Amino acid sequence: MTTPTVVVLGAAGAQASGLLRGFARTDTELKLVLCDRAPATGLPDSVGDHVVEHRAFDLLGEPEKLSQVLAAADLVINLTGPYYTLGPIVLDAAIAAGTNYLDICDDADATELLLARDDAAKVAGVTALIGMGSAPGTTNVLVKLALDALPDGEASASITWCVDAADMVGAVVPHFAHSFATAIPELGGTPSWDGLAPERVSFPDPIGEQLVVTLSHPEVLTLPRFTRVTDAHNKGGLIPEDFTHLGWVASRLPESESRTAAMHTIFEAARASHSEREPVGSGLIVDVRVGADGICFRSGGAMSQDDATGTPAAAGAIAFLRDQVPGPGVVSAEVLVPAEFFAALRVVSAGGGGMTAYRTVNGEIVEHVRIRDLISPPVAVG
Length: 382
Description:
The structure is a single chain. The protein contains 13 helices and 15 strands. A hairpin with a 2-residue loop joins β14 and β15. The chain is globular, with a radius of gyration of 20 Å. The relative contact order is 0.16. The mean pLDDT is about 95.
């Protein structure tokens, strides 16, 4: 069997580090072509027992090099951002090369641009799995898992998350501001603070009560497209909550060449003022309901966003190599079979996710349910 070639774009970035740690845990033999604008010396020389090659080029300035590297690949994993700029460029190149595609896109407007390439991908026989990180990504699979266990009928899904400001580095800063500016698309700009419907939500320990607001996120678009969810909502925030307010302020900065640099300056100054604070991690609540019946997933823990995002991406890549991603076309993670995804996730994960699940009635918890029983329901005896 030929060793599959997997191209990783943005391989020197933070999320790529989590992806590559995941790949290092799998016995599936891979040829990894690690690409970044940074010199090749900034890329890891080894990833487990896999064959590793380096490429250094600029996606925008040297498109011919992107085409060359994709022509020899079985799968490209696009970890470059911002996705509303680079996502369509890389997906178009993958479609032209006939190469399957995976990304961790978490911009709603970019997701619309990528989904618009569905017909072109189908004609080319290319499958593109978009938003295959933590949220979106694992969140979408959890919604599908809940839907499989709930009665028939129209469903709602509410996704609520918080992330430690310690993880707000690099391209994540302008992305966070962008999610405010596109939170309510029909407004054509950043909503007022009250328009974001701020509220305090209690996450599992050690996260506790945190401020969250309405933010644009791909699940709101993809869940109604690929599942029976008809009502989807997303709220998120940063820890400590000062940074959530800063994200809203940064999103209101006027457009200019120095806008992104100004955002980084604001966040770096805020981080410096909290330099003695110990990071607490991140929290997630996924609440799925059909009528009065529901299933709610809750987690809180100290896992970094590098691993929280990169590990599911590695699992998505393994699913690709196992021919478990429906296609061709542009799809998102809720099309995956949950049992197959979580089997792949176990292969690439270090463990310690800390997720719990509950059955609910009218939003109130009535009993704890084991996630493994949702994945593989117990067989009745007698």
